[in-house]
Design a protein that fits this description.
By secondary structure, this protein is mainly beta. It is 11% helix and 36% strand.
């Protein structure tokens, strides 16, 4: 983790542009630290993806309308696997699978403190 700089957290006066043709949940899921959108892909290893969510959780407690990023988003993936990773302290969802088919998530360790805000482990949206 020391090899990677902290990611900037927006100030309370930041705004997100809403798209009227998207549900509120879809609007919230537009931002992600890592987005993968491909076919026949394997992401495997024993590493940790650290979301550094503390600043985001504090900001979202003060300004609930702020959209925090997802840690890992699989978007329109086909025949993909994510194996053996640790996902920690995401600002929002840890892993979201959106509009995807034949995606396998195995042996993932997902951590967030009890005090974190809306840090679901895995969210499946319009996927099979």
């Amino acid at each position: 983790m020391a090899d990677y700089p902290a990611l900037a957290c927006p100030s309370a006066d930041s705004t997100c542009v809403s798209e009227t043709n998207r549900t509120p949940e879809e609007q919230r899921m537009q931002q992600a630290y890592i987005t993968i959108s491909t076919k026949h892909f394997i992401l495997a290893g024993n590493g940790t993806i650290e979301g550094q969510g503390t600043d985001w959780w504090d900001l979202r407690r003060a300004e609930p309308s702020i959209f925090a990023p997802i840690l890992l988003k699989l978007l329109r993936c086909r025949f993909c696997k994510v194996l053996g990773l640790t996902l920690r302290n995401s600002p929002f969802y840890h892993c979201s699978v959106v509009d995807s088919r034949h995606v396998a998530l195995k042996a993932l360790d997902i951590y967030a403190p009890e005090s974190s805000r809306n840090t679901d482990g895995i969210g499946l949206f319009r996927s099979q």
